[in-house]
Design a protein that fits this description.
There is one protein chain. The protein is an alpha/beta fold. The chain has one domain: Rossmann fold (3-Layer(aba) Sandwich), CATH 3.40.50. Helices cover 31% and strands 31% of the residues. The chain has six helices and 13 strands. The strands form three sheets. Strands 1, 4, 5, 6, 7, 8, 9, 10 and 11 form a nine-stranded mixed sheet that branches. A two-stranded antiparallel ribbon has the order 2-3. The mean pLDDT is 96. The structure holds 1-O-pyrophosphono-5-O-phosphono-alpha-D-ribofuranose, uracil and magnesium ion. Magnesium ion (MG) binds next to helix 6.
């Protein structure tokens, strides 16, 4: 597993405002989108391209175009949905699939309640979006799902991670046989006794969309 923590003053600044408990939902949503666009620049370093001739007003030259099949972007509902716009701004032609997953707050086990993905992901590069990598259970389940369908390259883009979750994911990914990259804006200190990232930013889904009981 290739772990990349993006170090950039703009990323650090935006992440700090995002963490602030006084930041309201509209600002939180905007910052989430902006952060994803910045992380996507790093996360798409290996996106596949094909040489393509182009006629400029002065000459013909050879550039590149995104290869087909296009990358698949998979936001994990709910909170990952807040990252979709920031990602598709950078790759407007990406295909989008959806996974709905929720963590049981007692057992911390992830359960899947919705899935809308292509049946066959052979030869596809997939970008999974979820702001929080806490115990790692949710991302582990998502990555296994994509690998079973044949995805041959998986990149997870998260805003914040706990070291415990990253290690759990590393253990899984190293045995999966699918190249996988995890891109973060920040690695936090730890998980607390109820599975929240500390210092973190609280519940990302609630801060994006309000509390749902
Ligand atoms: O690494 P883990 O311990 O699995 O926790 C991380 C998950 O928890 C949050 O989702 P949540 O279950 O709160 O659902 P929501 O997005 O609908 O709020 C978050 O968005 C991740 O999906
Ligand atoms: O800190 C955490 C952990 C899981 N999910 C969140 O939204 N925040
Ligand atoms: Mg939540």
């Amino acid at each position: 597993m290739d772990l990349r923590i993006v170090e950039h003053p703009l990323v650090s600044h935006k992440l700090t405002v995002l963490r602030d408990q006084a930041t309201d939902s509209p600002t939180f949503r905007r910052l989430t989108e902006e952060l994803v666009t910045l992380l996507a620049y790093e996360a798409t370093r290996e996106v596949r391209v094909t040489p393509q001739a182009v006629q400029t007003p002065l000459a013909t030259t050879v550039g590149v175009r995104l290869s087909t099949p296009r990358p698949l972007v998979v936001p994990i509902l709910r909170a990952g949905l807040g990252m979709l716009e920031g990602m598709t701004r950078l790759i407007p032609t990406a295909e989008v699939g959806f996974l709905g997953m929720v963590r049981n707050e007692e057992t911390l086990e992830a359960a899947t309640y919705a899935e809308r993905l292509p049946d066959d992901l052979s030869g596809r590069q997939c970008y999974v979006l979820d702001p929080m990598l806490a115990t790692g259970g949710t991302l582990a389940a998502a990555v296994q799902f994509l690998a079973k369908r044949g995805a041959d390259h998986i990149t997870c883009i998260c805003l914040i991670a706990a070291p415990e979750g990253v290690e759990r994911l590393r253990g899984l990914l190293d045995g999966l046989g699918v190249p996988c990259t995890v891109v973060l804006a920040g690695m936090d200190e730890k998980l607390n006794e109820v599975g929240y990232i500390v210092p973190g930013l609280g519940d990302a889904g609630d801060r994006l969309y309000g509390v749902v009981d």
